[in-house]
Specification:
Layout: H1 7-10, H2 16-19, E1 29-33, H3 46-52, E2 56-60, H4 67-79, E3 85-90, H5 93-100, E4 106-112, H6 123-127, E5 139-142, E6 145-148, H7 150-157, H8 163-171, E7 176-177, E8 193-198, H9 206-215, E9 219-223, H10 229-232, H11 234-247
Amino acid sequence: MGAGVAATTLSAAPTAREATRDHKPAVRNVVLVHGAYADGSSWAKVIPLLQAAGMNVIAVQNPLTSLADDVAATNFALARQHGPTVLVAHSYGGTVISQAGLAPNVTGLVYVAARAPEAGEDFAALSAKFPTPPVNSGIITSGGFRFLSQPAFLQDFANGVPRKEALVLYAAQGPLSTTPPTTSIAAWHQKPSWYAVSKNDRTINPELEHFMAQRMNATTIEVDAGHLSLVTHPEVISRLILQAATQS
């Protein structure tokens, strides 16, 4: 596992554009997969940084109706890419890319505060081995879907995001099917992986994030952020993605 690097340490590091000046990525395509309680717009701050570095970027719009449906949406996005592609996920999206990541054009996997299940693993059972994240108390279930109450979303899912911005994200949250998403594949066994641990995560326990990153032998950084590091620290996340594009 790579050494942990705090976001505060990286604040003086080169921008995403500057980071590619001397090391032009061999991979030019990036597919971004959002998680539960979100949509593709959660990548809005990362996308322009990757584009400025010369990357072709697609953000998947997961229906969140089932793992199979989300994998199908991701596979469709991958099929539209011409050439090698880095597949990136946030949160629940990590389950999706763990299943879809064996696509022939995928060269590397990047997990941003994301689930990284083993094939056939009960993620709820794995999570139960670690302290319960505060967000769990704000989950509401209705009509076969689960979503977050506004207090839980603002305090636990979007902690660190300015309130006005977090309210916009709350309005766009995507409810997740209550059907347990069980993978039959763990693509990280066969593809190089990178992981951004959120040190202040209140949605996935940071200890669990470290466990998953170490288990997959991922190149790992620590970000001084809550669950939405892609919103609060887009430069850090974009640099990690560009590192994967250069090294995978």
